[in-house]
């Protein structure tokens, strides 16, 4: 079914989401402050917009793919923002990974001011998952809005789950990112250990398949890390953002997280090396001493 969809934020993930939506036949309008990113989707058939407000007027579903709660807040409530064109006929689907409490507060404000509902839909699966329509999406919001969003989410996700009220999807994403960050670091260290023992690390995933150490990150990324293949499928800067959110949430709830703290510091070192925009495989540079 063709839906009128707006995408705000056309970075690495936004571009993949937009590409998939166009391939599935949706009428896509796109806005980003970087006109080159907009142009890349326009070449595939999207329609450009000059502001979030204009983009919102053109659609029934407004998808956000942004990097921080402050950016989301400005896009929604700032001058020329979504709220100025919002009404009850439209649905905001926030696929950003941001603070749960900030999400709940913004969702309440948007509903109160405009009657436009909000579903937080952070994702897991990266660019490959988006392009294949096989993302895992953990959602927060009212069930009626969750079901309304399904008509679009069904083309993006193979696993779409309502976790609770507004912000619950973002909390679940924090848990997801905790697992991912620790697993990426484990893969990087495992590559070095295999190499030190004279074992080809690219053969490890097949050897461990079906065992307790098996997992998606092992299978998808160990050969990539071993080859020092730095093709972007995500960014260290975004991972650190999520780790900082986890740390902030842990501080509020007085939750001890010693391994997460260590991996967070490793990411801060990588960012200090100028690798913020680079792929998670760049973690190999630190272990390689390069």
Account of the 3D structure:
- This protein is of the alpha/beta class and 290 residues long.
- It folds into 2 domains: 4-164, Rossmann fold, CATH 3.40.50.720; 171-288, N-(1-d-carboxylethyl)-l-norvaline Dehydrogenase, domain 2, CATH 1.10.1040.
- The chain has helices at residues 12-23, 35-42, 52-57, 69-77, 100-114, 126-132, 143-153, 168-196, 204-208, 216-226, 236-253, 258-272, 283-288, and strands at residues 4-8, 27-31, 47-48, 61-64, 91-94, 117-120, 123-124, 135-140, 157-164.
- The strands form 2 sheets. The protein has a 6-stranded parallel beta sheet, sandwiched between helices. A 3-stranded mixed beta sheet has the order 7-8-9.
- Helix 4 runs parallel beside helix 5 (100-114) and helix 11 (236-253) runs antiparallel to helix 12.
- 42% of the residues are buried.
- The mean pLDDT is 96.
